[in-house]
Amino acid sequence: MPPPIDMKRFEQLKAVGDLPSPRGVAIAIIRLTQTADVSMAELARVIKSDPAFVGRLIKAANGLVAENRRAVVSVQEALMVLGLPAVRTMALGFSLLSNYRKGACEGFDYGRFWSSSLLMALSMQALVQRVRVVPADEAFSLGLLARVGELALATLYPADFSRLLKEAARSPQLRQLDLEQTAFAMTHCELGAAMLADWGVPSQLVNPVLCFERPEQADFAEGSREAGLVQCLVLSRAIAQLCLAPELEQARLMPAMLRLSGRLGLPRGDFVSLCERIAREWGDWGKLLQIGTARAPAFGALCAAEESESKAVASPENGATASKEGGATGQGDEMPVLIVAADASERARMRALLEESGFSVHEQADCTQAIESAIDVQPRLLLIDWSGENCGAPLVRALRTTRFGRALHILVLLDADDDALLEEAAAAGADDFILRPIRPAALAVRLKAGRRTVMLQRELEREREELRHFAAELSISNRRLQEAAMTDALTGIPNRRFAIDRIQMEWAAAARHSRPLSVMIVDLDGFKEINDAHGHDVGDIALRQISSTLRGALRAQDVICRTGGDEFLVICPDTDLSAALGCAERLRDAAHGMLIETGGPRVRLTISVGVAMREPSMASADALIKLADRGAFLAKERGRNCVMSAQVVQTTA
Ligand SMILES: Nc1nc2c(ncn2[C@@H]2O[C@H](COP(=O)(O)OP(=O)(O)OP(=O)(O)O)[C@@H](O)[C@H]2O)c(=O)[nH]1
Is the ipTM of this complex over 0.85? Predict the structure, then answer.
């Protein structure tokens, strides 16, 4: 993992007061959400003093509520759906957005930055709903702030950062992060991560932000939450880049984006609809936040074009070309080679020798221009004169930082056996050398060795690609298996296993934040009679329909699981006993009023519900469930079709 920023330096930057920071109401919201005993009413009162934030918060909450549910319309409801950590980072993100729409850094496109950050926020929210590495609400804010370090560099060093961005745009082979390291002795990733940590964002979220723009340096354990977050951030960035790219450029970006989504185990069709939804929401949010957006890319068409392209590459008609290029040493192999030498007659001699060996030859006299030719040609072999004035070391070093340059076989041409020059070439990244005057036989041997290395490397690449593909497929089937293991096959709602995991999670969160937690046991009344009277199949249909009715009658944050034959557990986070009793009554009413269509007889069902709320004295989640069970027993005893609790509702005077 890249090292974090030097904290002494960060404190100095903070002390100067130029780092982007939240203002106004956002500060009050952030402070309040950090207080352990903040009441929702107090927080809602502060939030309401900023109408713009109210709108954004409600919109964010509705993004998390399933489409078939009632929309969130009040601040209180939004707070319940989002939870305090998400509200805090959202206040932060939106406050920065309002106050840093413009700035002094001329080369930094503030509008594009926020548009891209918004895309990352929406992509992160959508992706984690599939991959479930963190709650979707936290992911939104993380996406919004993932590149805040760039805004900070633009604010701290407007002139220098502007120059740096221009240089990076002129020479794409020079990575912006390297330029930042040279110019400021830190990168925007390091600075952004330090800012997030300073704002109280937990390290499990900050560390992925530190790494995602150099994912190859991330060393999180395979399958860990951080590793998953890095992948989601990388893909979100790719989605943002594609949405903001000119139309002609989009097709070029599509294959890489599809590969990334494959690695996350997202089937192509799903991923395309996910991107379409993100682009739609981007437009809506753009209007709300007054951020410029572009026309949504035609994701479906881009994906189809990519598919037909990859089929064409793999088709047998093209196999001949592929195997020709893939042949070990055969004459006529069109492997591209780039010659870089100042002397025209020498270049011509080398060209003749190389063409004789069947290479496709490109040449360049000047080292500084050779980098552009190399990017165009993407040679497999480079033959470079190491003796002229314009030494090859910077070129070779720059090439080695690129993906294709790392696989390049580099052969240097020297005047004489000069150890110092040889060492310099090797240190820069050369693979082999040949002395002047060039002897055709010696060059042929060198080329043969070079070609062999290139071929082996290609085979390795192919194998690696196959492995990656295999790993992606495996992760898809693992995810499906995992989902299947947690889902009740008859009703499609979460099963007992899921319920056990989830209640433990909610129990821990409620204990940590001293927040209320209630559960309900829902038991169907006289279900055996339905089975006995109409048969098991009718019983199954009734079970499916009642599950769906109960699920539809719950709030977005409540979870219903089938824990037994005709028994369900409902988990209600952030809910006290009196609210849970109200909720249970709503369920009872929904079941009672329902006429179940079975294709044969119409059936009516009622439910008995037991409700319990967590108390600090309870030892574990089991005790809570037992108490709800006791309530269900009391409801049955009382004659069924009613709601009971073994606890007493505390009323405040
Ligand atoms: N059709 C169907 N029936 C099931 C399934 N799982 C359990 N059952 C039946 O559900 C019934 C539950 O019966 P009981 O526990 O006596 O409950 P009840 O008839 O609802 O009676 P009370 O709870 O006392 O009101 C049994 O007949 C089970 O065979 C299932 O997946 N499908």
Answer: yes
